[in-house]
Design brief:
heterodimer, A: alpha+beta, 5 helices, 5 strands, about 35% strand, B: about 140 residues, alpha+beta, five-stranded antiparallel sheet, about 25% helix
Chain lengths: ~150, ~140
């Protein structure tokens, strides 16, 4: 645990870039049962005040998945994926992610701690996403729980 | 805009309008896997899920959270949501319904904006906790 902390606390992974396509947003919205026309129809989005079709609230996590950011930490720590679960997910929103955006991001390990005398290890990461204009769009806060056996 | 009628005047302790989605089908899990980019086979393939010690495929945690997010944006327009987080308390299975609810825990002002802090949750059709979360929404 201490070695893990020494090696990984504060580690920053390489920046990544993901293009957000309209078709992907509408597929995502369909697959979650979303019914709001702002995610399907550009006119509905614009009349609701959005500059283009906005991504639903949790889509930012898929951007990080596309960039391989959910498993790279486990691979880096040489942890078996079957021993890890997604314990908690948080989002802080600055402005919308819309179809046509190019999103860049970078993930940092911000905390590592254990519970139950080391039987569970918690790895907390923060990924900050910004758009093609350099504006921050969403910060993701992820907690990965690893069974240490 | 898409704000709900009782939106800006909501009081401490008041419930926000609940939202449910389900029953969740295996087809929906397949569509969400493709659309979300989470291709982990424990959501798609019973054999692999059983080999991992489960009884069968389970619902993606992020699909449950996406449903919880829809409760927020059905009440307040999306641009008003400042923070949204949840802890994954338990697994949901195909056939389960995701039942979301929330309560206003406090109202405050920050940088000239009126904010409401919410306690939100998702349960299955039997009332078992799936997600426990919080959100902060601009109400004025």
């Amino acid at each position: 645990m201490d070695t893990l902390k020494e090696r990984f606390l504060g580690k920053q992974y390489d920046p990544f870039t993901v293009d957000v396509e309209k078709g992907r947003i509408t597929q995502f919205a369909n697959s979650i049962g979303e019914e709001n026309p702002i995610h399907f129809d550009i006119d509905a989005a614009k009349s609701a005040g959005y500059r283009a079709i906005p991504a639903p609230l949790t889509f930012a996590y898929s951007i990080t998945m596309d960039a391989g950011q959910s498993f790279n930490v486990l691979e880096d720590m040489a942890v078996d994926k079957n021993k890890a679960v997604h314990g908690e997910q948080g989002f802080t929103y600055h402005t919308d992610i819309c179809a046509g955006d190019t999103i860049t991001g970078q993930q940092t390990i911000v905390d590592i701690y254990d519970k139950k005398n080391g039987a569970l290890i918690f790895v907390v990461t923060e990924t900050k996403l910004s758009n093609q204009n350099g504006e921050p769009v969403t910060d993701l806060h992820s907690v990965i729980v690893i069974r240490n056996s | 805009m898409t704000d709900n009628d009782n939106f800006a005047d909501i009081e401490n302790g008041a419930s926000i309008p609940p939202l449910s989605r389900g029953p969740i089908s295996r087809t929906q899990l397949a569509l969400f896997a493709g659309a979300s980019g989470d291709h982990n086979p424990i959501h798609l393939d019973d054999d692999i899920a059983r080999a991992g010690g489960l009884d069968g495929v389970i619902v993606h945690g992020m699909l449950m959270m996406a449903v919880l997010g829809q409760m927020l944006t059905s009440w307040a327009s999306q641009a008003r949501v400042k923070k949204f987080s949840s802890r994954f308390a338990a697994m949901a299975l195909p056939g389960d319904t995701i039942v979301c609810s929330g309560v206003v825990k406090g109202k405050r002002e920050e940088n000239g904006e009126r904010l409401a802090d919410l306690e939100i949750k998702a349960e299955n059709q039997n009332g078992d906790a799936l997600l426990k979360g919080t959100a902060t929404v601009v109400i004025g």
